[in-house]
Write a structure and sequence with these properties.
Blueprint: E1 2-7, H1 16-25, E2 30-34, H2 44-56, E3 60-69, H3 75-88, E4 92-96, H4 107-126, E5 130-133, H5 144-154, E6 159-163, H6 171-181, E7 185-190, H7 207-217, E8 224-228, H8 236-251
Parallel strand pairs: 1-2, 1-8, 2-3, 3-4, 4-5, 5-6, 6-7, 7-8
Helix pairs in contact: 2-3, 6-7
């Protein structure tokens, strides 16, 4: 099943209440709250408040975007992230696979990240929370091959991954990665930009690519939240248009 949502850091400049209002206006179902601005690590009162505000608005909390970097954080930081995620009522905490790209990461560094991933997955399991990797440049999930290697090496049922389009114009590369990662997939970040410059465009301009991605996602038996991010011009009106575009694609 495919559901819809917003990544709160799309509008870092807005207060949580305004983000909730925009999400309601867009008729999306959920919000992935960010740990850098809206729900800081360790601020359990803020997490509980945002959780209540979200659910009172008839929305779900899809995930906690923690920005915790595996292999770089302390045990205390990881515990703070997980405790905040629990207070927020998020079913998933999103983390980054280290702070080095796969091309420059040696085996010792990989093992450090893998070990922290195992610890995070186990601790999250004890709290009933899922751990999901960000699929992102300059981490160990910056290529399909490195992502699969990490998931297979850690081999923990509670470690899964997000997906977003790679920084390449080649559609075959992007559909291949999504299809390969589908067994480990949790949620997807939805946007349309120029892969090299990261210039943002209306989501409707990416119809050809996104229809191909949706064809793959619709074959999954799991639930996936498609959360809008990187809106052109950080413009709330453009966000509302993008939300309408996404819903129209899902309806056909």
């Amino acid at each position: 099943m495919l559901k819809t949502g917003l990544v709160s850091v799309t509008f870092r400049q807005l207060e949580a209440a305004h983000i909730i209002e925009l999400t309601q206006q867009a008729d999306l179902g959920s919000i992935e709250w960010g740990g850098d601005i809206h729900v800081p690590h360790g601020d359990l009162d803020q997490a509980r408040l945002v959780r209540q505000m979200t659910t009172d608005a008839g929305l779900a909390v899809s995930a906690y975007g923690s920005y915790y970097r595996l292999g770089a954080g302390t045990e205390a930081e990881l515990r703070a992230v997980l405790n905040t995620c629990a207070a927020l009522g998020a079913p998933i905490v999103r983390v980054w696979a280290g702070e080095r790209g796969s091309a420059v990461a040696d085996e010792a560094y990989r093992q450090t990240v893998y070990a922290d991933a195992r610890r995070a997955a186990q601790w999250a399991t004890e709290r009933g929370i899922g751990i999901s990797l960000e699929y992102h440049q300059n981490t160990l999930t910056d290529t399909l091959q490195s992502t699969v290697a990490l998931l297979q090496a850690v081999d923990h049922p509670n470690l899964r991954t997000y997906w977003q389009p790679e920084h390449t114009p080649d559609l075959t590369t992007k559909t291949s990665s999504l299809r390969t990662l589908l067994p480990w997939l949790t949620n997807v970040h939805v946007f349309h930009w120029e892969p090299e410059t990261h210039a943002r465009y209306p989501l409707a301009d990416g119809a050809n690519d996104w229809r191909a991605y949706l064809d793959i996602l619709k074959t999954s038996a799991s639930e996936h939240v498609l959360s809008l991010e990187f809106v052109c011009g950080d413009d709330p009106e453009q966000f509302l248009q993008d939300a309408q575009t996404l819903q129209q694609w899902l309806a056909t």
